[in-house]
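Example is below:
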Amino acid sequence: MSPGTRPEAPAIRVDLQLIAGMVPPGSRVLDVGCGEGELLAYLRDRRSVDARGMELSMAGVQKAVARGLAVVQGDASTDLADYPDASFDYVILSKTLQATANPRTVVEHLLRIGRHAIVSFPNFAHWRTRLDLLLKGRMPVNDHLPYSWYETPNIHFCTILDFVHLCREIGVEITDSLALNAAGDVQHFAADSRWANLFAVDAVFLLEEKA
């Protein structure tokens, strides 16, 4: 490896690979709630994007900056308002929507700041979640929802159909939608699919404003 050359980005989670595949090479990208910069580093090294990030946790910011990434500390619920219109080609919100104080306002800001938005979240209507609530009468704790109710950062759980309804309500066009099941298999689905609402563990949406 020649001096100054970055090592190739390691493999990342399936949902993050799906998000990366939606971003054309050379795009200007803002990753909101970017954590330690895993996706941003992958996009920078494999898609040659202009990668920027925002993260609430200072520990996450420090680790992302140590990777050579341009990441600032900020809260998606309040600080997206400071970004000017059309600053980015793609704004990403990966498994963060449910932890924001006002998800509707956050989605509106994503599409004000970027020409496109990519949003992923855990689907609270998955059949196993429904079964846990039915049989146990308690909030589920599993690999995809790992926190107990009293310590979870998630404050606005939603289902796929909830999110689709929100997009329609605020005039957002869904241009692609992907479902991941518990085995990590991926399928495209119609936005209002009740099949996906029942069997998808996670969902990924590509959005843009309606013309």
